[in-house]
Amino acid sequence: MIFTHDTELTLRAACVLVNSDRRAADRDDLGDIAGLDDYLAEFGWTGRRDRDFAELAEVHRLRERIGRLWAAADDEERAVGQVNALLSDTKASPWLTRHAEMPEWHLHLASIHDPLARRMGAEMAMALADLIRGGELRRLKVCAAPDCDAVLFDVSRNRSKIFCDTGNCGNRQHVAAYRERRGKEG
């Protein structure tokens, strides 16, 4: 399946959002307003910004909610229920737009004046709805490394990606398997 630019970008943003506190037990990439600013700049989020701790807390609650949705990806009915609830709670109202930083036509699903977490939640819910409608929910995965709980959005052609990009998990697992094979030979 080929995803529209905004759907893929938003799903990548959702993945990074969920992983922002899963990389290390004592580290939260969105632990402060500066971290949130960096994240928003990386993915081109526009519109209202309050830049206060209440806004940061709302984004943290959204992160938890999107993380629960990722965990429900193997149960389509449950995932659909969660996406529908998020669309409803954010009062998503789609409209086409384009602007200098993203000249391709894309959807916005909330007013630029709505709170940040509501806008983010609406756009992430719609991107997830696109994934479900396309029968591609299985592209949402949890890293297969036994010591990692990061999530990934698999855009590989054959949906074969199993390790996240956050902790060098694939490389670590391949090295461990190699060492185990070498140990059995010697």
From TrEMBL:
Give residue ranges for domain Zinc finger CGNR: 139-182
The record's listing under InterPro entries reads: ABATE, ABATE_dom_sf, Znf_CGNR
Q: Name one Pfam family in it.
A: ABATE
What SUPFAM superfamilies does this protein's entry cite?
Answer: Jann2411-like (SSF160904)
Question: Its domain of life?
Answer: Bacteria
Under the heading Gene3D superfamilies, the entry gives: Jann2411-like domain
Protein name (Swiss-Prot/TrEMBL): RNA-binding protein
Q: Give the source species.
A: Mycobacterium adipatum
What taxonomic classification does the UniProt entry list for its organism?
A: Bacteria, Bacillati, Actinomycetota, Actinomycetes, Mycobacteriales
